[in-house]
Amino acid sequence: MQPKITATVACTDRQVGEVTRLIIDPLTQQISHVAIDAGGVDILAPAELIASVSEHEVRLRCTSAELGRFERLRRDDFVSIEEVEIPHLERRLHGVRPGEVLVPVPALEKDVTRRSFFTKFTAAIGAVLALPLAFPALRYIIDPMYLPFDNSWLKFGRIDALREPGVPQLLKFHKTVKEGFLTREFEKSHWAMRVSPELREKIYAEGDIEFRDANGEVVWTNSKEAEVVVFSGKCPHLGCAYRWRKHRTFGQTFICPCHLSIFDPAGKVLDGPSPRPLDVLPVKVAGNEIQIIDMEFKAGKAEQVRIV
Question: What span, in angstroms and rounded, lies between the C-alpha atoms of 73 and 167?
């Protein structure tokens, strides 16, 4: 039986508080901990401590003193299940509201251990010593990487593929890229959308959007009167692909399921770790054809740093 929110909690010696939240393991989809309000402090009690569950009470296999030694709930370490996609999970939970069931935030970065630090440090010293010998060959290989940015216009899609304003479409296209001395073609995708007057004001809040080359020269300017906006298909946080979904709190939004960044239809950050809004790309319309300059920007930076 699932513990009920606000059910009283009793240890082996006395009653200690009530259930405030349930913590779910996203892999097993089982309750891993129960958050208990014990005198104004939320304590995370492992599910293994639960001896019995009734309609109004949860009994634990520990004393109140033992319970006090467990970890306190740090809300920033968790997100509501309303903000993540875990198939069929909601069917298994009953009588809970948004914010009462949490899952741990993915561990994106881990501390480097002392042993791994010195291992990597030693390898780095060896690489530095070998660099003078490898430099001529390395320069020959990487020289093509220092070519100017490609500012050519690409056929991206047809404007009649876009539905009403404010409803984005994920459009795929093919691009030929030269990497070193090799040339290959691969498929990419970006989000395109007709803009309504309200979205136009948000996207172009600071006026027309300029795009520059490696020398800082303006190569194109998106006019505030443009009919179409194109967002890069990569999340500015770590470059993951994001989706267009209906969020229970924010409504229709762009959501990155990898690290839980959420953006409004104008690309502005609503929640999550993304350091900047979605990246707008240079766009123009010729007849029924949408054309773009396919730019990429460095992930994880508050400012746009063009890399392609």
Answer: 39
Residues 24, 28: Cα–Cα separation, whole Å: 8
> What are the structure tokens assigned to 286, written together?
């010729």
Residues 6 or more apart in contact with residue 14 via CB below 8 angstroms: 64
Per the DSSP assignment, residues forming a β-bridge with 32 are none
Q: Which two tokens stand for residue 169?
A: 């479409």
**pLDDT on residue 47:** 92
| Alpha-carbon dihedral sign for residues 9, 11, 16, 21 | negative
Element counts in the chain: helices (H) and strands (E): 3, 20
Q: Would the pTM of this model clear 0.70, i.e. be above it?
A: no
pLDDT in tens, 226-241: 999 999 999 999 999 9
Structure token digits, residue 207: 């006026």
DSSP code for 243: E
Residue 213 burial (10 A CB sphere; 0-12, 13-18, 19+): middle
DSSP 104-162: EPP----PPPHHHHHHHHHHHHHHHHHHHHHHHHHHHHHGGGGSPP----EEEEEGGG-
Q: How open is the CA angle 228-230-252, to the nearest 5 degrees?
A: 90
